[in-house]
Amino acid sequence: MQTSVSILHHDYPPLVRDTVDAKLQHLGRFNDSIVTMRALLERQRADHRVELVANVGRGAVLVADALREDFGAALDEATARMERLLKRDHDRRIERRRA
Fold first, then answer.
1. Half-sphere exposure of 82 (CA within 13 A, CB side)
2. Structural domain containing residue 14
């Protein structure tokens, strides 16, 4: 799984990039068919926006985003949403194989 972290229109410390990359690697546990995982970090006035995009095998693209005043809260919410999406996609693929 390839991961990338993009920061738009604002500077974050290097520690933030490492933290986000670690979260992306952790999300890889929930679905083994992930090809790439991308995080977009953006600051919109007082709010932080985190968007996670996962390219799953066979052309599926899963997107989860969050907008919060606190960066940590936005990152946690986006990863929780992506975790649910990845689990749901994995379960759907398992059910199709069984049918």
1. 32
2. 2-98
